Amino acid sequence: MFLVVLQNATSALTLMISKAALQHVAPIFFVALRMLGGGMLLLGYQYFFNRDHFVLPARKDLGLIVQIAFFQLCITFVFTMYAIKAFSAARAALMYNIAPFIAAFFSWLMFDEVMTKKKYLGVLIGFVGTIPMLVVEDGMTGASYLSGVGLMLFIAVVCNVYGYTLIRTLVKFRGYAPLMVVSLAMPLGGIF
Fold first, then answer.
1. 84 contacts: CB under 8 Å, gap ≥ 6
2. How far apart are CA 8 and CA 4, in angstroms?
3. How many Å apart are CA 30 and CA 46, to the nearest integer?
4. % of the chain exceeding 90 in pLDDT
5. Rounded distance, CA 71 to CA 158, Å?
6. Cβ neighbours, 10 Å, residue 145
């Protein structure tokens, strides 16, 4: 439970820092710089300190890595950066609470995972809990999730979950280390 709280707190903190940084730079430049810099640091770490997990991708896996770079890193972060210009950072972070519902859908679609009645009930309760969030305007900016910017943020969440599903494919079925997948995809995401 502590790790879940820590992950959500870290995610919200990065959105607040990003919102402050966007007052000084364009969203696309900010994302490109962040992805290129972070990706190069991760590749360097993998190469120098974690060499046993440093592998160049197989040709058949390049398409998945390019999709991760484009959908999860480029589209997700560019759309999120534009959205937090219209929403408060806290409000944008709340939209990511629908990610488990989208993940359940992708798991069913891509991995043929079966949902039990309890899982369906949990998804239903969770989704009903998000409905008030979708219809109420942001108190700080007046923006609504049902606006064009809200749609961009929703697309960002879907692309993020899709990217994690692809990472799961590479880790679980192709034997890659998770950090290596992200190390390979981040610089590409910065280039897109």
1. 15, 18, 19, 22, 92
2. 6
3. 24
4. 15
5. 9
6. 23
142, pLDDT greater than 60: no
Determine the pLDDT at residue 139: 54
Residue 140 has pLDDT above 60, yes or no: no
The pLDDT tens digits of the residues spanning 101-137 come to 888 888 888 888 888 888 888 878 877 877 776 666 5
pLDDT(141) > 70: no
37: containing domain: 2-191
* Number of domains the chain contains: 1
Which of 94, 80, 75, 90 shows the shortest CA–CA distance to 162?
Answer: 75
pLDDT in tens, 77-108: 889 888 877 777 667 777 777 788 888 888 88
Structure tokens given for 93? 């972070």
Q: Tokens for 56?
A: 């160049």
Altogether, the residues listed in the chain come to a count of: 192
With residues binned 3-state (H G I as helix, E B as strand, rest as coil), the percentages for the chain, rounded to 5, are: 80, 0, 20
Radius of gyration from C-alpha coordinates of the chain: 17
**CA-CA distance, 74 to 83, in Å (whole number)?**
14
What b/e string do you get for 68-106 counting C-beta neighbours within 10 Å, with b at 16 or more? bbbbbbbbbbbbbbbbbebbbbebbbbbbebeebbbbeb
* Residue reference for tokens 């998804």: 123
